[in-house]
Amino acid sequence: AFFWLVSLLLASLIWFISVHLSDREDAKLQYSLLIFGAAVSVLLQEAFRFAYFKLLKKADEGLATISEDGRSPISLRQMAYVSGLSFGIISGVFSVINILADSIGPGIVGIHGDSPYYFITSAFLTMALVLLHTFWGVIFFDACERRRFWCLGLVVASHLLTSGLTFLNPRYEASLVPIFIITLCTGLWAFITAGGSFHNILKCLSCKQEDDSRVMMYSALQVPFED
Fold this sequence. Notes:
The protein has helices at 2-21, 27-66, 76-103, 118-146, 149-165, 172-193, 198-222. By secondary structure, the protein is mainly α.
């Protein structure tokens, strides 16, 4: 989360300097600078994700050195999941905190002809971003470990695309639907990257059913018979 905050700080500084060095009366230019700032923010986030990967690799080597069996107690997949989830949570907090502050009032959403679905749509977009960052973390770490640069490129491209789609708001159907399609596809990709398969899902479900059956049988045996 700290690495994400640092990337946001740097992106904000770049955007702030760009705005003050440009013509602030030119609305079209300011909108272009806003898009530029979003793109810079995405690239810095992915750069800091890579920096965090390198830091964790160094820490992983240190943990493996001091462990008794010569292996790190934390796997790369666990670190990737935790890293992505942390990026997602802090990103979601910053995405929704200003919206929640505005929801206090004054005024009513849609009173001036704006969409009344602003808050619910923002909630769904925030949820998608949290999930996407988690999935991107799993894919990104695996790509760095296996040196699959095309996977890294796809992660960065999908992140840029997702960020760019938000500029279609308030046409929420044009942004929300594609973003959730990207989320589902990326989640499936992350699931396969983490070693998941349809066979594993069936095996997990069958084990759960067996456990439930054992619990029910054990509970039945514990019930005393009535006369």
